[in-house]
Amino acid sequence: QVQLVESGGGLVQPGGSLRLSCAASGFTFSSYAMNWYRQAPGKERELVASISSAATHTNYADSVKGRFTISRDNAKNTVYLQMNSLEPEDTAVYYCNVKKWGLDYWGQGTQVTVSS
């Protein structure tokens, strides 16, 4: 079965950096686009970044453009989210996502807190 396991979250000061990882299993990772979403308290889950199966195309939410970078290693079945210049507004639970056969699969999420 599809399994997505996020890691790398934590507490960081404004202006700091974090790198999130998502280890995938249970499907042919290299055949699917991957996504990172986030959900802040009291807000809807929002798409942060996407990467195509061969990493030839990426897309970002306007709020993170120029600060976040999504990448993937198909040999390791892992997708990453490098987050730089973090702001308090980036505080949220971050989720890895894959859309497979019309269904959404999610990891358990990793908490990112940006605070001084």
List the helices and strands and how they pair.
Elements: E1 3-7, E2 10-12, E3 18-25, E4 34-39, E5 46-51, E6 58-60, E7 68-73, E8 78-83, E9 92-100, E10 103-106, E11 110-114
Describe this structure in a few short sentences:
The protein is mostly beta strands and 116 residues long. It has strands spanning 3-7, 10-12, 18-25, 34-39, 46-51, 58-60, 68-73, 78-83, 92-100, 103-106, 110-114.
User: Could you name the ranges where pLDDT drops below 50 across 5 or more consecutive residues?
Assistant: none
Mean pLDDT: 97
- Give the DSSP E fraction (strand runs of 2 or more residues): over 45%
The string of secondary-structure elements, in order, is: EEEEEEEEEEE
Overall 3D shape: globular
Quick one: biggest sheet?
7 strands, mixed
Structural class: mainly beta
Number of strands: 11
Helix content: under 10%
Compute the separation of the termini in Å: 40 Å
What is the alpha-carbon Rg in Å?
Answer: 13 Å
The number of helical elements comes to 0
